[in-house]
Every structure is written in structure tokens, then in C-alpha cells.
Specification:
This protein is an alpha/beta fold and 494 residues long. It has 3 domains: 4-283, 3-Layer(aba) Sandwich (Rossmann fold), CATH 3.40.50; 306-433, Four Helix Bundle (Hemerythrin (Met), subunit A) (Up-down Bundle); 442-493, no CATH class. It is 49% helix and 14% strand. The strands form 5 sheets. The chain has a 4-stranded parallel sheet with strand order 4-3-9-10, sandwiched between helices. Helix 4 (119-131) packs across helix 6, helix 4 packs across helix 7 and helix 9 (286-294) packs across helix 10. The longest helix has 25 residues, at 306-330.
Length: 494
């Protein structure tokens, strides 16, 4: 099945056919660098990081542009509040953003332009719109005339009348229409500015993305992405600006990720449920966060909660626990992965595992080709993990055929891990790190746990079951779960 993507512009899934065969040009709106990034930013950037990786994996040459908005009212206001130049604020939070993206395991985009580096390009675009009669000067400001762009609001499929009726619009008698928006803003006293044909000023928010995306990707390119909150006004205004200036289609496919809610409520600083990426990663491993973000389709809403993050953490332990069992089964063995169906007959569990393993990459591609359905792709992986643990549980010494199947799976899961950023650590090291992190939060040391387990073993040997149960209950109270087996007693942190 060829790749299909949901295009916000058409409101349906479409076959993906890039402007230039074999090449994909993609622009994703970056952040306004005035504060730390939050969990919503994490979702958007992880989603488009995986889309970037997947498009490359299926053979496209991808140019991925993600910008920084480094001049804006919010940046200026923070700079004034702190009594520092605006560039000090923007540089600080560009550095913080880069650190957050690195901590999330993201690949670098092809380029990351800053608005202040492209003032000349922005001025030329604004001047073109003025010359074409699509924009007008009002004092030192320049506004876009929305009534002159016939297909304005085609992305959100609304009308100007609907938008006016449902919005609180600041009254400005200089505007020809209340919905007209600023392309260039006259500098107020003490504000940063650049010289322009309309006087000293700075760009509006929307114009920078139109100018920078066309600068790097051309007048028409393949994918423009961002969160659903950007559909209006930002992306609507980008379309209006670019298409009025060039007379050509701006973007073929518009992709928008869904919102992240906090405990089923909209994230808001005023509600006290606002979490930065740094705060989340101080509590959860990067791969746990990525698994959580990919557990729902990228267009669906996602609820960030302790319970859902605990489920993601449990899922990552299941992945790495199974990979550790595979490493143990393959230790010191040479597995032939090219002839999995040769040799002795397979039992029922092995046959099921072989069938699922041989088709894993095909099913992964099928899921991702269906509008990047990571939830379905992950479901396929967990389905195989269940089969693997079933097969390994049936025999303490896996057969040569099982070893071959497991080697094949390990190779494929590493390939998938390169795309989704999950399952890329050394299993034993990951599990040890997780256990160490949990122990650090407990009021008991590993040495004390081992000593109590040994005492419990002695009590059971002498049939002192009351003491044995006391030790078990004591450990449970400290969130330590005992796992008894024929090989002895192991333990894990709850």
C-alpha cells in the first residue's frame, strides 16, 4: 500500500505524491523562544521527527526545516521584565530548546532558520503583497487584506462571518476589515527594530514562516506541519500570504498533531497543570515519554497522567525485559536468519512466532503508510513480544529454530527502533538503570532486600511460614514484589 496522509486542507486521507519524485520538502513550525518548552511541544516535535525518519527510511531524500521565532511580543515583554536585551532571551531559550530536543532523542532537522536572520526576505515578501494590492500601510504598520484573498480560511473551512461572530477582535480603526492581520509592526519606543520601506519596525508572526519556508523549500512544497492550534490563524495566514504573492499552491499536504491534555483537562499555567519537558524527563525516561507520545495516533488527543505514564513505563520494561531474554537466549549462539522455515517441524507457539516475525517489517510499513499510525505499529510489536515470552517460557533451552526466529526479530526491532526511537538502548543496561532509579526513591537498599530474601528462604526451609510471610509483607509495603520460581526468588520494584 502506498503512503497515505491525512491532509487538513482536504479533510481526508490522500495518496502521498511529492512535488519532485524521490524528494520530500517539509516545514514544521518551531517555537517562540521566550520560555521553556512543555509536553505539548514534545508531542509535536517527536511526531514530526518520526515522520522525518520514516520518509527517509522508505527512500525519500528529505529536506526538513524547523524555524525559531526569535522576535515576538512575548520575547520583548520578558526582556523588558528582566531588563535585558531581547536577544539574550531568545538565545537563552534557543539553547534550552536544543537541549530539550536532544534529551528527547530527536534528530536535527536539515536547517533551523531564525526569523531575525531573514528580515530582508520578509520585507521583500511584504513589499510584494503591497505592490499587488493584497496589503496596505496604516501608519508604520502593514496589514494583509483578508477580503481580497478569495480562498481565505480554506484550511479550517470557515467563513469570515463565522470567525467574526465567534471571536473577540481588538478594535483598530486603521484596519479595512476586523480580521486583517499585521505583516509588519511599527516599533514602539524602546523596542527592537529594523529599517523598512514603512519605517522602523519588525515582522508580524505569520509572515516569517511564509518567507522562510519558501526561501528554503520553494514556492510550492510537500508537507507543512504543526499542532492543531496553528490551523487558525497561523497556517491560514501563511497560505494567504504565500499564495497571494506567488499565485501558486503553497503546500500540498497539511499535517496537524492533536493536543495533549493533563488529566483530561486542557493544559494551562492558570490551572497549575503545566509541565515542561525538563520536568517530565526528570521523572520519566526519554523512551518512556516517546512510547507514551506514540501510543495514540498523532492526530488524536492524548491525556498525560500518572496512570498513563506508568503504563508507558511498564510497556518499556516489557520491551526491554523481552529483549534481555532474547539476548540471553542468543548468547554464544550463531543464528542463521536466512532460512527460518527450514529444519525440524515447529510447535504451535513457534509457528505463530515465525509467522508474526517474518511479517513484522511489512506490518510496520503498512501501519506507518496509513497516515503514520504508530499506535498500530506498536501494537504489532507488543503482539510479537507476547509470542516470544510464551515460546521462551515453554523451554529453558530454546531450540535452534527458536534462536533463528529470535535473531531475526532482534534485527528487525533494531531497524524499527531507528525510526521510532524506542528499543535502542542495551537491554540489560536499561533495566538496571530503571531498577536503580526506582531504588533511589525507596526507603530500602538493594543489600537490605537481598538480606531479607535470604532470611525468608531460610525461614521457608525451616517451615517458619509466619516469618516468611512477614518478610514478604514487609517488602510489599516498601513496593518490592517477590517472584518465586523453581530457580529461586527474584524481585522487582512495583
Amino acid at each position: 500500500m502506498p503512503l497515505r496522509v491525512f491532509n487538513t486542507l482536504s479533510g481526508r486521507k490522500e495518496a502521498f505524491v511529492p512535488v519532485t519524485p524521490g524528494k520530500v520538502k517539509m516545514y514544521v513550525c518551531g517555537v517562540t523562544v521566550y520560555d521553556h518548552t512543555h509536553i505539548g511541544h514534545a508531542r509535536a516535535n517527536v511526531v514530526f521527527d518520526i515522520i522525518f525518519r520514516y520518509l527517509q527510511w522508505i527512500g525519500y531524500e528529505v529536506t526538513y526545516v524547523r524555524n525559531y521565532t526569535d522576535i515576538d511580543d512575548k520575547i520583548i515583554n520578558r526582556a523588558n521584565k528582566e531588563g535585558v536585551p531581547f536577544r539574550e532571551i531568545s538565545e537563552r531559550f534557543i539553547r534550552e530548546f536544543d537541549l530539550d530536543m536532544k534529551a528527547l532523542g530527536l534528530e536535527l532537522p536539515t536547517c533551523q532558520p531564525r526569523a531575525t536572520e531573514h528580515i530582508a526576505d520578509i520585507i521583500r515578501l511584504v513589499d510584494t503583497l503591497v505592490e499587488k494590492g493584497m496589503a496596505y500601510q496604516a501608519g508604520g504598520d502593514v496589514y494583509y487584506c483578508v477580503e481580497k484573498f478569495d480562498s481565505y480560511l480554506k484550511l479550517s473551512r470557515r467563513t469570515l462571518e463565522d470567525m467574526q461572530a465567534g471571536a473577540r477582535i481588538e478594535v483598530d480603526e486603521r484596519k479595512r476589515h476586523p480580521m486583517d492581520f499585521a505583516l509588519w509592526k511599527e516599533a514602539k519606543p524602546g523596542e527592537p527594530f529594523w529599517e523598512s520601506p514603512w519605517g522602523k519596525g519588525r515582522p508580524g508572526w505569520h509572515i516569517e514562516c511564509s518567507a522562510m519556508s519558501m526561501k528554503f523549500l520553494g514556492e510550492t512544497f510537500d508537507i507543512h506541519g504543526g499542532g492543531k492550534d496553528l490551523v487558525f490563524p497561523h497556517h491560514e495566514n501563511e497560505i494567504a500570504q504565500a499564495e497571494a504573492a506567488t499565485g501558486r499552491q503553497f503546500v500540498k499536504y497539511w499535517l496537524h498533531n492533536g493536543f495533549v491534555n493533563i488529566n483530561s483537562e486542557k493544559m494551562s499555567k492558570s490551572l497549575g497543570n503545566f509541565f515542561t519537558i525538563k520536568e517530565v524527563l526528570s521523572r520519566y525516561d526519554c523512551e518512556v515519554l516517546r512510547l507514551f507520545l506514540l501510543s495514540a495516533h498523532y492526530r488524536s488527543p492524548l491525556d498525560f497522567s500518572d496512570q498513563n505514564m506508568a503504563e508507558a513505563a511498564s510497556g518499556m520494561e516489557r520491551i526491554y525485559g523481552t529483549l534481555a531474554r532474547i539476548d540471553e537466549a542468543l548468547a554464544g549462539k550463531q543464528a542463521e536468519t536466512s532460512s527460518l522455515s527450514d529444519g525440524n517441524p515447529l510447535n504451535e507457539s513457534e509457528s505463530e512466532l515465525l509467522e508474526k516475525t517474518e511479517s513484522l517489517l511489512d506490518r510496520f510499513k503498512e501501519a506507518m503508510d496509513d497516515d503514520f499510525n504508530t499506535a498500530l505499529a506498536l501494537g504489532n510489536v507488543f503482539d510479537i513480544l507476547r509470542c516470544i515470552n510464551k515460546v521462551l517460557g515453554e523451554s529453558s533451552v530454546p531450540s535452534e529454530k527458536t534462536v533463528s526466529i529470535l535473531a531475526h526479530f532482534r534485527s528487525d526491532i533494531r531497524e524499527i527502533g531507528k525510526i521510532i526511537g524506542i528499543g535502542i538502548s542495551v537491554p540489560s543496561a536499561y533495566l538496571e538503570k530503571i531498577r536503580g532509579d526506582r531504588l533511589n526513591r525507596l526507603e530500602i537498599t538493594e543489600e537490605e532486600i537481598i538480606k531479607l530474601i535470604e532470611e525468608r528462604a531460610s525461614a521457608r526451609k525451616t517451615r517458619d511460614f509466619r516469618r516468611s510471610d512477614e518478610i514478604r509483607d514487609l517488602l510489599i509495603a516498601k513496593n518490592i514484589i517477590l517472584l518465586d520460581s523453581a530457580q529461586g526468588t527474584s524481585w522487582k520494584v512495583k
